Amino acid sequence: MEDGFSSFWGPVTSTDRCEKNYVHSSYIAEFFNTISNVPGILLALIGLINALRQRFEKRFSVLHISNMILSIGSMLYHSTLQRVQQQGDETPMVWEMLLYFYILYSPDWHYRSTMPTFLFFYGVGFAVVHALLRFGIGFKVHYVILCLLCIPRMYKYYIFTKDASAKRLAKLYLATLLLGSICGLSDRVFCKQISHWYFNPQGHALWHVFMGFNSYFANTFLMFCRAQQREWDPKIVHFLGVLPYVKIQKPKSQ
């Protein structure tokens, strides 16, 4: 929310959220919207360590790294409220969805080289166009379409997965998505009313936190499903009895 003055980063040139600007620091425009990305970075780091330690396919390491890049880009955007940083947040969002699309659909794709080639050039083309043009609502529609394209495959994986713990991950994925969406939409739709409240519930910041967990649950579920396809005897175990992750047992031949 614009407060009518400049800061270290200059006037706001990006989309502004409901949080008041530069309340806690002249270097951080939206304090809560910035720090709320930290859980997503930490969860992605945990997922990356697990993927590397158990030698999962490189696609999952790249996926966790993309989650971290997205969260870092979001931090830069909300801390500066500059158009360039907003593009640095939105472009990785699309790249991440293309990566999810590849992980979900590539196991049954008969022409293996065509999908990654197409997705690569699609991602590069989008980055170039997005750097030149300001989409606004067009970006949101495009992003939602990419998300919707992934849902049928996620549902198929859920149906064919018999493990109760893995199914619970899918349910946590859906729950965090719904809760995060409610928080984010409420922050946008009711911003004028919220601005008059004594306490701002920081709906967009809560969206970041929920989506950090949402990405982690999605990644862990997909790692479990892929391990099943590779016959790696996957199990869902919990770090410190709380955070779920996939533990596999590869055949000695692998």
UniProtKB/TrEMBL annotation:
Its cofactor is Zn(2+). It comes from Hibiscus trionum. Zn(2+) binds at H78, H204, H208. Belongs to the alkaline ceramidase family. It is a multi-pass membrane protein. The chain crosses the membrane at residues 31-49, 118-137, 143-160, 172-190, 205-225. Keywords: Calcium, Hydrolase, Membrane, Metal-binding, Transmembrane, Transmembrane helix, Zinc. Ca(2+) binds at D16, E19, N21, E30. It holds the Pfam family Ceramidase. InterPro entries: ACER, ACER_plant. It comes from the Eukaryota. This is CERAMIDASE.
